[in-house]
Specification:
Blueprint lengths: L13 H20 L3 E2 L5 E3 H8 L4 H6 L1 E4 L5 E4 L4 H10 L9 E10 L11 E10 L4 H17 L6 E6 L6 H12 L8 H6 L5 H5 L3 H6 L12 H16 L5 E2 L11 E8 L8 E7 L3 H4 L7 E7 H11 L11 E6 L4 H13 L4 E3 L6 H11 L3 E6 H5 L2 E6 L5 E5 L3 H14 L5
Helix pairs in contact: 5-10
């Protein structure tokens, strides 16, 4: 019996990874333009980090984490999200004592025990960013703008930005009481899970995807009606930034996000083609998380995006992100006596910055030329026994069939001149 990848995980093969690389490279460039630096945190963290940071009563902590006890008796968890790890690193390395704000981004795998479905895996890949050390609403707008601009530039269709403010510890208790009063006579209409725990965290009822809870909360009080003056002014400023930057959005009073650490701004970006699981990015402000994890009071905001969903959406849309780049040169050996010389020559071309492919078997020159044609190489370098004895090779241009004898020591210079000439003669766009 063959061993297969565990359920909810998958292999990313070379053809698919070409699209991933395009998305990741564009994201890195966008982060560079906005002044973010990359951070890489461990896949394993102390379980307590997520219990304290995300909330012990959340489904993520109570049902979805991969947690185990190591041989030293320590409880460890495969990271289910990136924000808590970034905050832990921020505190551990005393980044709060340096220039603020600290702006970082990350790319990497996360792990959640969920039911696998389209665009959702148990090992999934997340792109995210965090801004720590400022409560300026411009930072909120920035963390919304980056994923929105990224996915718009990639051609993601049907982008929909939903925005809300869930207040702060000063004003949220009033909203919580109003929501409890609203839910109390409607408890029997909620889904079975929230019939049991609606009082513990009523905001999570709004986040529930079941039709029962959505119908029961259709006329629930809106969070924005209970904001204190500070939160209301902050939310108005975030909206002004988006409007002046011509980023379309809609206020959604149901949007609360599923993690306990959020305060004030929350947002979610969805895209068509993914059905019920249509979110491609989300985030918000979490001004109390740093302090909750043992640090000083540091305001922060960030976002995370599931790259698996984004790639799936681009594939379903048939988005053209460009073809894989073929090798520039194919090095063919015309005879067994020059096979090693051909391979050494290919290595030297690569060291000089010229992408080169070559044959590793014993196929005939005719068979190698067919392989060269399939690779899409622009030139073929034929290493023949007679020519090589004279320190020469044959250089053939595949498009025209024109070929010339070239001194082996001048091959790199000849190819470089030919490449530059081809670039100069290319039509301007």
């Amino acid at each position: 019996m063959r061993i297969q990848a565990p359920r909810g995980t998958r292999d990313l093969l070379p053809d698919e990874l070409r699209i991933w690389h395009v998305v990741e490279e564009r994201a890195r460039e966008l982060f560079r333009l906005h002044g973010y630096a990359e951070i890489r945190t461990p896949l394993l963290e102390a379980t307590e980090l997520f219990v304290r940071g995300i909330g012990e009563g959340t489904d993520l902590v109570s049902k979805e984490m991969y947690t185990f006890t190591d041989r030293g008796g320590r409880s460890l968890t495969l990271r289910p999200e990136g924000t808590a790890s970034v905050v832990r690193a921020y505190l551990e390395h005393r980044l709060e004592s340096g220039p603020q704000p600290v702006k970082v981004y990350y790319l990497g795998p996360m792990f959640r025990y969920e039911r696998p479905q389209a665009g959702r895996y148990r090992q999934f890949h997340q792109l995210g960013a965090e801004v720590l050390g400022t409560q300026d609403p411009a930072a909120d707008a920035e963390t919304i703008l980056i994923p929105y601009d990224l996915y718009q530039s990639l051609g993601l269709q049907g982008l929909d930005l939903r925005l809300n403010s869930i207040g702060c510890p000063n004003c949220r208790p009033r909203y919580r009481e109003a929501l409890l009063d609203y839910l109390r006579p409607r408890v029997e209409r909620l889904c079975p899970s929230h019939q049991r725990n609606w009082e513990a965290n009523p905001l999570r009822v709004l986040d529930c995807k079941s039709e029962a809870c959505r119908a029961a909360t259709a006329e629930a009080p809106e969070t924005t009606a209970f904001l204190c003056e500070v939160c209301a002014d902050h939310f108005a400023a975030v909206r002004r930034y988006l409007e002046r930057l011509q980023v379309p959005y809609r206020v959604d009073s149901r949007l609360v996000r599923g993690l306990d650490y959020y305060t004030k701004t929350v947002f979610e970006i969805t895209a068509e083609s993914l059905g019920a699981q249509d979110a491609v990015a989300g985030g918000g402000r979490y001004d109390g998380l740093v302090q909750e994890l043992g640090g000083p009071s540091v305001p922060a905001v960030g976002f995370a995006s599931g790259l698996d969903r984004v790639i799936l959406t681009l594939q379903r849309q048939g988005t053209d992100l460009g073809q894989a780049r073929p090798p520039e040169v194919f090095v063919a050996a015309a005879g067994q006596g020059v096979q090693e010389a051909a391979r050494i020559l290919a290595f030297r071309l690569r060291r000089a910055g010229i992408a080169a492919a070559t044959e590793y078997g014993d196929r005939s020159l005719k068979a190698q030329m067919k392989v060269a044609g399939r690779t899409g190489a622009q030139w073929v370098v034929v290493v023949g026994e007679a020519e090589w004895a004279q320190g020469q090779v044959v250089l053939r241009e595949m498009a025209t069939g024109a070929q010339q004898i070239v001194d082996a020591g001048q091959l790199i210079a000849t190819l470089t001149r030919s490449r530059e000439a081809a670039t100069d003669g290319a039509p301007r766009r």
